Amino acid sequence: MKNTRYLLLASAMGLLLSSAHALPPAQDRVYTADQNSNTVSVFNPATNMLVGQIRLGNARPDVLSPLYKGQINVHGLGFSPDHKTLLVISNGSNAVSFIDTATNKVKGTTYVGRSPHEGFFSADGKEVWVVVRGEDYVSVIDPVSFKETRRIQTGLGPGMVQFHPDGKLAFVISSFTAAVDVVDVKSHEVIRKIPVVSPFSPFLQFTPDGREVWMTHKDVGKVTRIDTKTLEVFNVFDTGFITNHIAFAKVGGKVLAYVSIGGENVVKVYTTDKNAELLTTIPTGALPHGIWASDDSSRVYVGLENGDGVEVIDAASNKVIAHMGGGQAPQALVYLSHVVESGDGSANLLPRGNGEPGNIRLQSVKGDARGFVVLRNLGVVDALEVSLFKLKPATTYSVYVNGQSSVSGVFRTDAKGAVNGTMIGPVRELAASDGKNAGTINHIVVMEGSAPADKANAVLVD
């Protein structure tokens, strides 16, 4: 009898453990907006595998022809309350694509003003609001006719909009203005402007109870928290270099915040107490960006902008448990439950059209400079994407690859001492010049001005 009791207890514990680590339902999907390949990657969280891709355009650089008709820079994602429609924002072609999640087909496209960034359905599903970041307004679209019905004036460069769960207020953050516009949804009027610490805020998210808005400040590495009743900022805390997106998950009875820190290749987990405290740091692949939790909070999914895929975090252990290869340079990521009505959900999806990228983190020789490089194959040619930070403002820098005597790329920093650029060409041939590691890059040297490559006097090296 005693042994039987122990066996029953062990069996029950095993069932509890299995339940805690159970995979999400096979009817659910994870989506990423892939900026470089101009695809939407569709993943099955039950198998931790890519189902296929929705191709909205050609991969870079094949987007420059005057006859090109596809979308460019597939970047933002939103969805309808019933999860039947996925909203996709392509900021290079000013497009808002409406995708049927059951068929993976585009059912409508709306073109708005210059460089939209993100969009979302209203809480009642009757309107779609898209922030037009290259201008100063929110475009309101009818999701049935796919026509723009009005514009809501905001501060310069609105970056994202989200609706409070009760449907009464919308919060619009900015990429160029250090303020949040609070909009009355019924009147479509801005009723409050909330000052914040930085003008560059790419993402906001509500806590599950709707009492707070959390927003990221990518340029200064901070998160701001706003009380949705008082409409006041009550907490600002440091997070890290290139703070991107936020997700919330309920773990062990407590709501935790998961923040993707692109410049550190980590996801940081914080409490949601009055003063947020860092609980743990989870190492990830290259440049974590979009992030979203499963409905049951068992998993947190993070897109790797320079890793071309998604990593799966087990919320109970706070460890990465799977990697799913996807499109090039994923930006936004969302998790939608109960979208597959029948079959395996692969209708109208195409296989992955790209391979794995190569990543190199650059080290400062002197000073506080930072940088990283990613090498992607584009078929006939390759792309070497260089991102440099904390250099001298408005200054030219030269990049040398694999000991070449001639400059491989020349870049000029902006007013903040940062630059992002891409070199297109037969990079693999150059990288294979040593005859040993074809297709790899072994040495990168960044010099100020046009000085010849010299590791001892370089600004950044691999």
How would you describe what is shown here?
This protein is mainly beta and 462 residues long. It has two domains: 24-336, YVTN repeat-like/Quinoprotein amine dehydrogenase (Methylamine Dehydrogenase, Chain H, 7 Propeller), CATH 2.130.10; 358-461, Sandwich (Immunoglobulin-like). 5% of the residues lie in helices and 48% in strands. It has two helices and 36 strands. The chain has helices spanning 2-20, 427-431; strands spanning 29-34, 39-44, 49-55, 74-79, 85-90, 95-100, 105-111, 116-121, 128-132, 137-142, 147-153, 158-163, 169-174, 179-184, 189-195, 204-206, 212-217, 222-227, 232-238, 243-251, 254-261, 266-271, 278-283, 288-293, 299-304, 309-314, 319-325, 330-336, 358-364, 370-377, 382-389, 396-401, 409-412, 419-425, 444-448, 460-461. The strands form eight sheets. The chain has an eight-stranded antiparallel sheet. A four-stranded antiparallel sheet has the order 3-2-1-28, with no helix packed on it. Strand 10 and strand 11 form a beta hairpin. It is globular. The N and C termini lie far apart (65 Å). The relative contact order is 0.11. Mean pLDDT is 91; it is low at 1-20 and 432-439.
